[in-house]
Structure formats: structure tokens, C-alpha cells
Amino acid sequence: MGKAMEGGLFAQALPLRTFVEKRTASVAAQLAGASKGYVPTMNFSHGGPKGGAQLVETLGGPFLIFRTKVQDELRLTQEQKEKLAGTLPGHAEATMKAFEKLKDANPIEREKKMQEHRQKSAEKLTALLKDLLQAKQQERLLQLQLQQAGAFALLGQHEAFAALKITDEQRKQFMGVAQDMQKKIQGLVKEVESGGNPAEIMPKIMKTRREHEGRIQAILTEAQRQEWRNLLGQSFDLDK
Questions:
Q1: Which of 138, 165, 194, 213 would suit a FRET pair with 90, their CA atoms being 20 to 30 Å apart?
Q2: Confidence (pTM)
């Protein structure tokens, strides 16, 4: 059924992916939780779009496929949908247990462990998708993942990026931009933890994200930017 997507596409990215990959509302909720010193409670539904949406927000990457809109875009058959839905309770339960274990952890340890959980979860789901999806469906899902992550996806590893012929020097520059962004976002998060209003700080975080994503794209040559646009495929609005 075609070559499977690599589980390491986003798993090897920096921890800042927690911020850059989530939508505004979910990040604001996370910051609100941080300001109170606890991990926000996750009430995953064992089935249906609600549980899938929460898993997407928490785990990201290939978990986009649990969104009804994405399934429609991929033109999943009823059999594919049913097989996929059957895995949802297991992913939900594992993630709820991960959150429960980390409720008393400090922010750094919490993110480290959650990053490990995301990677393991992505690898498990990717193994299923290798057999479940047709080649064209896998290709389109990768495009949707890249569109959601934006240029920050280039912080990870994937065989599809070979066409861009990214140099070691460019990778160093990517890392510099990412680290700079991480520092700025951490500063903003500290404002929230000190009692700042997440609703006021959230726009600053998203502005920082956009600015640094632009800096990453600027590192690419025109030929590389064209290849990147080719990888993204036809634009798809995930939030409408």
C-alpha cells in the first residue's frame, strides 16, 4: 500500500513543537493550566470526533487522521474508518495515564516525558497506517501534517525532505532560529506563571511563531522553497 510515513517526522523536533503545532485555543488552555501549576485535565472520549479532536491537540502529527474533516479529505472507506476508530480507546487511555503520572512533575520533566509519549504514540499509529492507508492517502496525510506544522516541520527528519537538499549549515541556522524562538516563548510562559493573563499573552506567542517561521523559510533558497511548496500540496484549511 505504498511507503509508510516515517514516525520520526515530528518526533525528533524540538520541545517547542508543543507550542507551534497547537491551535491558539489549545495553547491558551495549556498556558492557563501552567499558571495554576497543574496539568490540565484531559477527558478523552472513547470514540467519535470529540475524542479524536482532543488526541489531535495533545499528540499532533499523524493523529490528524482522527479528525472527521481529514478523513473526508483522505476519502477513507467505512472499513478504514472503523479500523481506525477501534484504536482510539487505547490511545486515549494511554495518554490519560501519561498525564496522570505527570501531574506533579515540573514543567521541564513534564514536557520531556510527554515528548517521549508523543513519539511512541506516533510510531504506533504510523505502523497501523502503513497497512491501513493507500499510497495516495498516505501522501495526502503527510501534506496535511506539513501544512499544520509549517516550516517548523523542517526541524524534524523525513525522507521527503531529501528533495530540498538542505545543507548542514542551513540545519544549524534552523536550530538557531528555533532556539531563539524557544527562549522568547519560555519568557512569555513565565509571564503567565507569574500571574499574567493568557488571553493577552497568547497573541504575542502566535506572533513570535509566525515571525520565526518566516525566518526559517528565508533560510531556504528559492529552489528549496519551491520544493517545499510542492511537498505541501494543495492548501487545506483544517480549522474551518
A1: 138
A2: 0.74
Closest residue by Cα to residue 42 from 112, 120, 95, 121: 95
Contact criterion met (CB below 8 Å) for 112 and 15: yes
Q: How many whole angstroms separate alpha carbon 203 and alpha carbon 207?
A: 6
Which of 23-50 are b and which e, b meaning 16 or more Cβ less than 10 Å from the residue's Cβ?
Answer: eeebbbebbeebbeeebeeeebeeeeee
Q: Do 238 and 69 form a contact (C-beta atoms < 8 A)?
A: yes
Burial code (b: 16+ CB inside 10 Å, e: under 16) for 128-164 equals bbeebbeeebbbbbbbbbbbbbbbbbbbbebebbeeb
- H/E stretch holding 24 reads helix 24-35
Tens-digit pLDDT profile for residues 153-190:
898 878 889 999 999 999 999 999 989 998 898 888 88
What's the mean pLDDT when you consider all of the chain? 80
Record the cell numbers describing residue 74, joined without a space: 483522505
pLDDT at residue number 52: 57
Q: Which three cell numbers stand for residue 196?
A: 499574567
- Give the DSSP per-residue string, 57-100: HHH-GGGGGGSHHHHHHHT--HHHHHHHHTTHHHHHHHHHHHHH
